[in-house]
Design a protein that fits this description.
By secondary structure, the protein is mostly helical. Helix content is 53%, strand content 2%. Strands 1-2 form a two-stranded antiparallel ribbon. Helix 1 packs across helix 6. 38% of the residues are buried. It binds iron/sulfur cluster (SF4) (3 copies). One iron/sulfur cluster binds next to helix 8.
Length: 202
Protein backbone atom coordinates (compact mmCIF):
# COMPACT_ATOMS: atom_id res chain seq x y z
CA UNK A 1 0.00 0.00 0.00
CA UNK A 2 1.30 3.50 -0.88
CA UNK A 3 1.99 5.47 2.29
CA UNK A 4 1.96 9.19 2.91
CA UNK A 5 5.48 10.55 3.46
CA UNK A 6 6.77 13.57 5.42
CA UNK A 7 8.32 14.97 2.22
CA UNK A 8 4.93 15.81 0.70
CA UNK A 9 4.38 18.34 3.50
CA UNK A 10 7.16 20.54 2.08
CA UNK A 11 4.87 21.39 -0.85
CA UNK A 12 2.48 23.20 1.53
CA UNK A 13 5.31 25.46 2.70
CA UNK A 14 6.59 26.06 -0.84
CA UNK A 15 3.13 27.07 -2.14
CA UNK A 16 2.12 29.11 0.94
CA UNK A 17 5.36 31.08 1.30
CA UNK A 18 6.98 30.82 -2.14
CA UNK A 19 3.62 31.62 -3.76
CA UNK A 20 3.65 35.14 -2.27
CA UNK A 21 6.71 35.91 -4.42
CA UNK A 22 5.89 33.62 -7.36
CA UNK A 23 2.07 33.33 -7.61
CA UNK A 24 2.18 30.71 -10.39
CA UNK A 25 3.02 28.18 -7.67
CA UNK A 26 -0.67 28.46 -6.72
CA UNK A 27 -1.55 26.45 -9.82
CA UNK A 28 -0.28 23.39 -7.99
CA UNK A 29 -3.67 23.40 -6.28
CA UNK A 30 -5.26 22.57 -9.64
CA UNK A 31 -3.19 19.40 -9.76
CA UNK A 32 -4.46 18.53 -6.27
CA UNK A 33 -8.10 19.20 -7.30
CA UNK A 34 -7.72 17.11 -10.46
CA UNK A 35 -6.07 14.19 -8.63
CA UNK A 36 -8.67 13.92 -5.90
CA UNK A 37 -11.54 14.31 -8.37
CA UNK A 38 -10.19 11.40 -10.43
CA UNK A 39 -9.49 9.15 -7.42
CA UNK A 40 -12.52 9.88 -5.20
CA UNK A 41 -15.28 8.15 -7.26
CA UNK A 42 -13.33 4.87 -6.95
CA UNK A 43 -11.52 5.11 -3.60
CA UNK A 44 -13.32 7.78 -1.59
CA UNK A 45 -10.92 9.80 0.56
CA UNK A 46 -7.86 7.73 -0.36
CA UNK A 47 -6.09 10.87 -1.59
CA UNK A 48 -6.32 12.39 1.93
CA UNK A 49 -4.53 9.50 3.56
CA UNK A 50 -1.91 8.82 0.93
CA UNK A 51 -1.10 11.76 -1.32
CA UNK A 52 -2.34 15.06 0.08
CA UNK A 53 0.55 17.44 0.90
CA UNK A 54 -1.43 19.07 3.70
CA UNK A 55 -2.34 15.65 5.10
CA UNK A 56 1.39 14.94 5.25
CA UNK A 57 2.04 18.38 6.75
CA UNK A 58 -0.41 17.85 9.63
CA UNK A 59 0.54 14.18 10.16
CA UNK A 60 4.28 14.69 10.36
CA UNK A 61 5.13 18.35 10.80
CA UNK A 62 2.31 19.51 13.04
CA UNK A 63 1.77 16.33 15.02
CA UNK A 64 4.59 16.91 17.58
CA UNK A 65 3.02 20.29 18.50
CA UNK A 66 -0.54 19.00 18.82
CA UNK A 67 -2.43 18.60 22.08
CA UNK A 68 -4.08 15.49 20.54
CA UNK A 69 -7.50 16.02 22.03
CA UNK A 70 -10.76 14.51 20.83
CA UNK A 71 -12.02 16.05 17.58
CA UNK A 72 -15.52 17.50 18.29
CA UNK A 73 -18.22 15.45 16.56
CA UNK A 74 -19.75 18.69 15.21
CA UNK A 75 -16.71 19.04 12.92
CA UNK A 76 -17.93 15.99 10.99
CA UNK A 77 -21.51 17.22 10.73
CA UNK A 78 -22.65 18.04 7.20
CA UNK A 79 -24.52 21.01 8.68
CA UNK A 80 -21.13 22.58 9.27
CA UNK A 81 -19.21 21.07 6.36
CA UNK A 82 -21.57 22.05 3.55
CA UNK A 83 -21.66 25.78 4.49
CA UNK A 84 -17.84 25.78 4.80
CA UNK A 85 -17.59 24.15 1.37
CA UNK A 86 -19.94 26.75 -0.16
CA UNK A 87 -18.15 29.63 1.60
CA UNK A 88 -14.65 28.68 0.47
CA UNK A 89 -15.66 27.74 -3.08
CA UNK A 90 -17.72 30.95 -3.35
CA UNK A 91 -14.74 32.97 -2.10
CA UNK A 92 -12.48 31.32 -4.67
CA UNK A 93 -14.86 31.79 -7.62
CA UNK A 94 -15.61 35.41 -6.66
CA UNK A 95 -11.89 36.22 -6.46
CA UNK A 96 -11.12 34.47 -9.77
CA UNK A 97 -13.88 36.43 -11.54
CA UNK A 98 -12.19 39.63 -10.35
CA UNK A 99 -8.75 38.72 -11.69
CA UNK A 100 -9.65 39.72 -15.29
CA UNK A 101 -8.01 36.48 -16.39
CA UNK A 102 -4.47 37.56 -15.45
CA UNK A 103 -2.37 34.45 -14.88
CA UNK A 104 -0.47 35.73 -11.84
CA UNK A 105 -3.60 37.11 -10.19
CA UNK A 106 -5.43 33.79 -10.59
CA UNK A 107 -2.35 32.05 -9.14
CA UNK A 108 -2.46 34.43 -6.18
CA UNK A 109 -6.11 33.47 -5.51
CA UNK A 110 -5.00 29.84 -5.10
CA UNK A 111 -2.02 30.89 -2.96
CA UNK A 112 -4.36 32.93 -0.72
CA UNK A 113 -6.70 29.95 -0.42
CA UNK A 114 -3.76 27.73 0.52
CA UNK A 115 -2.56 30.22 3.16
CA UNK A 116 -6.05 30.60 4.70
CA UNK A 117 -6.78 26.89 4.86
CA UNK A 118 -3.27 26.00 6.07
CA UNK A 119 -3.56 28.62 8.84
CA UNK A 120 -6.88 27.08 9.99
CA UNK A 121 -5.34 23.58 9.78
CA UNK A 122 -2.37 24.68 11.93
CA UNK A 123 -4.62 26.40 14.50
CA UNK A 124 -6.97 23.45 14.98
CA UNK A 125 -4.12 20.98 14.56
CA UNK A 126 -2.26 22.48 17.51
CA UNK A 127 -5.16 23.18 19.86
CA UNK A 128 -7.17 20.01 19.08
CA UNK A 129 -5.67 17.21 16.95
CA UNK A 130 -3.48 16.98 13.82
CA UNK A 131 -6.33 15.91 11.51
CA UNK A 132 -8.99 18.22 13.03
CA UNK A 133 -9.03 20.33 9.86
CA UNK A 134 -9.39 17.20 7.72
CA UNK A 135 -12.71 16.49 9.48
CA UNK A 136 -14.33 19.45 7.73
CA UNK A 137 -11.93 20.42 4.90
CA UNK A 138 -14.01 21.18 1.78
CA UNK A 139 -11.87 18.84 -0.35
CA UNK A 140 -12.46 16.04 2.14
CA UNK A 141 -16.20 16.75 2.03
CA UNK A 142 -16.10 16.65 -1.77
CA UNK A 143 -14.30 13.29 -1.81
CA UNK A 144 -16.72 11.89 0.74
CA UNK A 145 -19.64 12.97 -1.45
CA UNK A 146 -18.10 11.49 -4.61
CA UNK A 147 -17.05 8.14 -3.18
CA UNK A 148 -17.52 7.86 0.58
CA UNK A 149 -18.89 4.33 0.26
CA UNK A 150 -16.15 3.05 -2.01
CA UNK A 151 -13.17 0.92 -0.91
CA UNK A 152 -14.45 0.34 2.61
CA UNK A 153 -12.37 -1.08 5.43
CA UNK A 154 -13.49 -4.62 6.34
CA UNK A 155 -13.57 -5.86 9.92
CA UNK A 156 -13.36 -9.60 10.63
CA UNK A 157 -15.52 -9.81 13.75
CA UNK A 158 -14.38 -13.40 14.38
CA UNK A 159 -10.81 -12.25 14.86
CA UNK A 160 -11.43 -8.93 16.60
CA UNK A 161 -10.79 -8.98 20.36
CA UNK A 162 -12.02 -5.42 20.89
CA UNK A 163 -8.63 -4.19 22.14
CA UNK A 164 -9.15 -0.66 20.79
CA UNK A 165 -5.65 -0.37 19.26
CA UNK A 166 -7.09 0.45 15.84
CA UNK A 167 -9.07 3.39 17.19
CA UNK A 168 -6.02 4.77 18.97
CA UNK A 169 -4.04 4.59 15.73
CA UNK A 170 -6.70 6.25 13.57
CA UNK A 171 -5.69 9.85 12.71
CA UNK A 172 -9.33 10.69 11.90
CA UNK A 173 -10.42 9.28 15.29
CA UNK A 174 -13.04 7.00 13.70
CA UNK A 175 -14.77 4.12 15.53
CA UNK A 176 -12.73 1.70 13.42
CA UNK A 177 -14.07 -1.70 14.50
CA UNK A 178 -17.53 -0.58 15.62
CA UNK A 179 -19.24 0.53 12.43
CA UNK A 180 -18.81 -0.68 8.88
CA UNK A 181 -19.74 2.48 7.00
CA UNK A 182 -16.88 5.00 7.36
CA UNK A 183 -17.21 7.62 4.59
CA UNK A 184 -14.53 9.77 6.25
CA UNK A 185 -11.94 6.98 6.35
CA UNK A 186 -8.86 8.28 4.54
CA UNK A 187 -7.56 4.75 3.76
CA UNK A 188 -4.23 5.38 5.49
CA UNK A 189 -3.96 1.78 6.70
CA UNK A 190 -2.64 2.72 10.16
CA UNK A 191 -5.39 0.73 11.88
CA UNK A 192 -4.41 -2.34 9.85
CA UNK A 193 -0.80 -2.02 11.00
CA UNK A 194 -1.89 -1.55 14.62
CA UNK A 195 -4.22 -4.56 14.77
CA UNK A 196 -2.56 -7.49 16.58
CA UNK A 197 -5.11 -9.97 15.20
CA UNK A 198 -5.03 -9.10 11.48
CA UNK A 199 -8.76 -8.43 11.70
CA UNK A 200 -8.75 -5.45 9.34
CA UNK A 201 -8.29 -5.24 5.59
CA UNK A 202 -9.38 -3.34 2.48
S1 LIG B 1 -9.12 16.65 4.18
FE1 LIG B 1 -8.28 18.28 2.89
S2 LIG B 1 -6.32 18.85 3.81
FE2 LIG B 1 -6.96 16.94 4.78
S3 LIG B 1 -5.89 15.40 3.58
FE3 LIG B 1 -7.92 15.64 2.64
S4 LIG B 1 -7.73 17.17 1.02
FE4 LIG B 1 -5.89 17.24 2.33
S1 LIG C 1 -10.16 3.68 9.79
FE1 LIG C 1 -8.04 2.96 9.46
S2 LIG C 1 -7.61 3.40 7.32
FE2 LIG C 1 -9.41 4.60 7.90
S3 LIG C 1 -8.61 6.58 8.54
FE3 LIG C 1 -8.76 5.33 10.38
S4 LIG C 1 -6.73 4.37 10.58
FE4 LIG C 1 -6.86 5.18 8.50
S1 LIG D 1 -7.02 -3.54 16.72
FE1 LIG D 1 -7.87 -5.34 15.71
S2 LIG D 1 -8.42 -6.68 17.39
FE2 LIG D 1 -8.13 -4.66 18.30
S3 LIG D 1 -10.19 -3.72 18.27
FE3 LIG D 1 -9.18 -3.14 16.38
S4 LIG D 1 -9.85 -4.68 14.87
FE4 LIG D 1 -10.26 -5.51 16.91
Amino acid sequence: MLKITPYLGIIVIIVSIGGIFYPKLGYFLLLVFASLMIIAPFRGRWFCGNLCPRGSFVDFWLSPLSRRLKIPSQFRSMRIRVPIFILLMGFMIFRIINTEGLVDRIGMVFVTLCIITTSIAILFGVIIAPRAWCSFCPMGTLQRTLGGRKYQLKVDKERCIDCGKCQKACPMQLPVNEILDKPDCIKCGRCIEACPKQALSF
